[in-house]
Design goal:
Elements (H helix, E strand, L loop, with lengths): L3 H19 L3 E6 L4 E6 L5 E6 L3 H6 L6 H17 L6 E3 L8 H11 L5
Parallel strand pairs: 1-4
Antiparallel strand pairs: 1-2, 2-3
Helix pairs in contact: 3-4
Length: 117
């Protein structure tokens, strides 16, 4: 029987295959029960920027790392860090998670802060 994680990873594989084919810089998102993480990764699999609710600067702004407000803060930070690296255009890799709630909040905050995807 296929469990929840295997189903998510199966969905994620298709997205990652397409992003690899396009040779695009990707914004990868991972959400756990307690936190949310984002990475900007170039086509050669080199991590250019990271942001998460574990960072001390983010912890000062949010009490709980597992809510929509925290995700929006991380989205804004990842966009700022990516733009500092000269990255404007990314492909959004939601890692098989639904585009809803925290994942959506992170994506919209990153778009508002200047990332295009």
């Amino acid at each position: 029987m296929i469990d929840k994680k295997q189903s998510r990873m199966r969905r994620a594989r298709q997205t990652r295959a397409k992003i690899t084919e396009l040779k695009a810089v990707r914004l990868a998102v991972y959400r756990s029960n307690g936190h949310i993480y984002a990475q900007v990764i170039d086509p050669s699999a080199k991590v250019l920027a990271t942001a998460s609710t574990l960072e001390p600067e983010v912890r000062k702004q949010v009490l709980n790392g597992a809510n929509v407000k925290a995700a929006a803060v991380v989205g804004k930070r990842i966009a700022e860090k990516a733009r500092a690296q000269g990255v404007e255009q990314v492909a959004f890799d939601r890692a098989g998670f639904k585009y809803h709630g925290r994942v959506k909040a992170l994506a919209e905050a990153a778009r508002e802060a200047g990332l295009k995807f």
